[in-house]
Amino acid sequence: MYRYHLRETVVGDGRRPARTPLRAAQEQAGVPAGRWMGRGLAVLGLVPGEEVTEAQLRNLFGERGRHPYADRIEADRLARGDCPKEAFKAGAPDAG
Q1: Which of 91, 38, 39 is nearest to 65 (CA)?
Q2: What is the pLDDT of residue 1?
Q3: Mean pLDDT across the stretch 12-39?
Q4: 35 φ, ψ to 5°?
Q5: Would you say residue 6 has pLDDT above 70?
Q6: Is 34 helix (H, G, I), strand (E, B) or coil?
Q7: Rounded to whole angstroms, how far apart are CA atoms 33 and 65?
Q8: What per-residue string of b and e applies to 14-33 under the rule 16 or more CB within 10 Å gives b?
Q9: What is the mean pLDDT of residues 26-54?
């Protein structure tokens, strides 16, 4: 499902050419960049109106709903000395 969303849905139901960065494909398709919206953004460390990045979409759609900044959370936890398994789980939806 993740590949479908990144290939087609986020570029206006068109097909995204292979190896084309998401933002470039959106511009070619005439689709504006996605923006974060909603009341719960502060809890996630997101800013209203901030552009949604391809990495954030990959985390949300491709990794069973991981935190949009799961990569950064995992790197921070590894730097603090957590084991890889615990660092990975820190970006999971049920992490607390």
Answers
A1: 91
A2: 62
A3: 83
A4: -130, 145
A5: no
A6: coil
A7: 20
A8: bebeeeeebeebbeeeeeee
A9: 89
Place of tokens 């996630």: 44
Distance CA 26, CA 44 (A): 25
Amino acid at 27: E
For residue 27, give both structure tokens: 């511009």
Residue 55 identity (one-letter amino acid) = A
SS3 of 77, please? Answer: helix
pTM of the predicted protein model: 0.72
What's the mean pLDDT when you consider all of the chain?
A: 84
More confidently predicted of 85 and 15: 85
Distance CA 41, CA 55 (A): 17
Domain ranges, ordered by start, for the chain? 1-33, 34-96
